[in-house]
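=== RUN LOG ===
request id: a7f3
mode: sequence -> structure
chains: 1
length: 69
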Amino acid sequence: MNLDVEVGKQFTKRGKNQKGVVYTVVDELTTTNRAGEVVKTEWLCTHEFLGQQVKSRENQTTIKMGLIA
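=== RESULT ===
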């Protein structure tokens, strides 16, 4: 797997209700099975909504499609 998403990267999501919302990657979450094999990798992201920090789990494709240069 090509996991080149780094903590601190900023991105926006596609969609009608996501215009102008900037997400920031804050942590990497890795799920393994009993054999120690990586099953899933997600990234914990935050954005601000009405003055509150909202957390969400996003996948690599969503982050890469919306990267802010």
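=== NOTES ===
The chain has a mean pLDDT of 90.
Residues 6 and 49 are 23 Å apart (CA to CA).
=== END ===
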